[in-house]
């Protein structure tokens, strides 16, 4: 999606959700293939943080769809 074409809250949140999911997958994939323990732990923590962001954005999308305040 062209980020310059994002005009509605729904479009913005859907784009944000996609980026957060990509980041989560990125860190978790790196962690799976990492053989250095302390780096693996860091990558897993980063993946978990991105997963938390996914949950937050999904909750905002749900509130928006219900006509509730998203902030």
Describe the structure.
By secondary structure, the chain is mostly helical. It has one domain. Helices cover 76% and strands 0% of the residues. It contains two helices and no strands. The chain has helices at 9-33, 37-65. Helix 1 packs antiparallel against helix 2 (37-65). It is elongated and about 45 Å long.
Task: Tag the structure with descriptive keywords.
0% strand; 71 residues; mainly alpha; 2 helices
Number of helices: 2
What's the count of strands?
0
**Shape assignment:** elongated
| Amount of helix | over 70%
Q: Sheet bearing the most strands, described?
A: none
The oligomerization state is single chain
What value does the average pLDDT take? Answer: 95
Parts with pLDDT < 50 across at least 5 consecutive residues: none
Number of domains: 1
- Overall SS class: mainly alpha
Estimate the strand proportion: under 5%
The CA-CA distance between the termini, in Å, is 24 Å
Radius of gyration: 15 Å
Return the string of H and E elements: HH
How is the topology of this model organized?
Layout: H1 9-33, H2 37-65
Helix pairs in contact: 1-2
What's a quick, concise take on this entry?
The protein is mainly α and 71 residues long.
